[in-house]
Write a structure and sequence with these properties.
single chain, alpha+beta, paralog of FGE (formylglycine-generating enzyme), four-stranded antiparallel sheet, four-stranded mixed sheet, disordered N terminus
Length: 329
């Protein structure tokens, strides 16, 4: 089961920033003393309001991610983020944005697919804002957000791992391209975007988290007592339309915050024995549970880190969990 969390929007233009990276992006959190192998200038891009807007029937807009080596995990996070280990990822493509309601609806309309939570058993945040509960007749069509209506540009939620895989298989068949879910290593490599900090925007210490991620903030406090973890306001209490915030240096939106994202990997309690080639990791794992990444609107800073990982049952659904697609090059 997904763990509960630990413990202003702005328009500033950030310059190119010089950061030290080890092996094209260390997985070690900032301040942990990682070895550096060179210098790379990290550009924090401005938001493109049109980047996620595509033909729903043809799938999400994709970004080509050039391969490289990085150090995966963190010495300063949860025990399941260790040991920090070197991984070499091959080039691949990743959705610039999380799969939207409109994109998932196109799949359902084309195939007649019955999603896991179509019976109304998606788990949603309770009124007290403390835990997730079922029995409220929620589904991807109606995730029961407080004071927020479901919309086409919101990330689809209340989808299981099986639903996410079914969508990628449909998209692959429709386009003839090898769509799939990203591996956990690909996901972290893409989220880091060659940074060594816990969050990609922290290469600029003056950057506001509310410019880059939808998490628990002052807006959440106004609706759910005690849910604020940062002093700024990002404009949303629950899910925000995809692409509402600034992207990372790879041009990827909402990699941290907004909604958790399914990956292809089976759950392992640590990285002991993890592959070094970035491929999907299934051997010796619990494949009834799959890894989710990125945190969500429910989480404060400790839940919104590039190395943060969690897991859930493949048939379980939450109104804080969605996905994005990858494509083999």
């Amino acid at each position: 089961m997904l763990s509960l969390p630990e413990g202003a929007r702005g328009g500033a233009v950030f310059p190119s920033l010089l950061v030290l990276v080890g092996l094209f992006g260390s997985g070690v959190a900032a301040g942990s003393g990682s070895e550096t192998a060179g210098e790379v200038t990290i550009q924090l891009p401005e938001r493109d309001p049109n980047v996620c807007r595509s033909d729903p029937a043809m799938g999400p807009e994709m970004a080509v991610i050039e391969g490289g080596r990085f150090r995966m995990g963190s010495l300063e996070g949860d025990s399941n983020e260790r040991p920090v280990h070197e991984v070499e990822v091959q080039s691949f493509a990743l959705g610039r944005c999380e799969v939207t309601v409109a994109e998932f609806a196109a799949f359902v309309e084309d195939t007649g697919y019955v999603a896991t939570a179509d019976g109304g058993d998606c788990r949603v945040l309770n009124d007290a804002g403390i835990t997730f509960v079922d029995g409220v007749e929620a589904s991807w069509r109606e995730p029961r957000y407080p004071d927020v209506a479901q919309g086409d540009s919101l990330p689809v939620v209340c989808v299981s791992f099986d639903d996410a895989v079914a969508y990628t298989e449909w998209l692959a068949a429709r386009t003839g391209e090898p769509y799939r879910l990203p591996t956990e290593a690909e996901w972290e490599y893409a989220a880091r975007a060659r940074t060594t900090t816990a969050r990609h925007w922290e290469v600029d210490r003056s950057a506001s988290p509310c410019d880059f991620a939808n998490g628990a903030d002052q807006d959440a406090r106004s609706r759910i007592k005690g849910r604020s973890n940062v002093d700024c306001a990002d404009g949303h209490v629950v899910s925000a339309p995809v692409g509402s915030y600034r992207p990372n240096a790879f041009g990827l939106y909402d990699m941290l915050g907004n909604v958790w994202e399914w990956t292809a990997d089976c759950w392992h309690e640590s990285y002991d024995g993890a592959p070094s080639d970035g491929d999907v990791w299934q051997a010796a794992g619990d494949c009834s549970r799959r890894v989710v990444r990125g945190g969500s609107w429910f989480y404060g800073p400790m839940g919104l880190r590039s190395a943060k990982r969690s897991q859930d049952d493949t048939a379980r659904t939450y109104n804080s969990v969605g996905f994005r697609v990858a494509r083999t090059r």
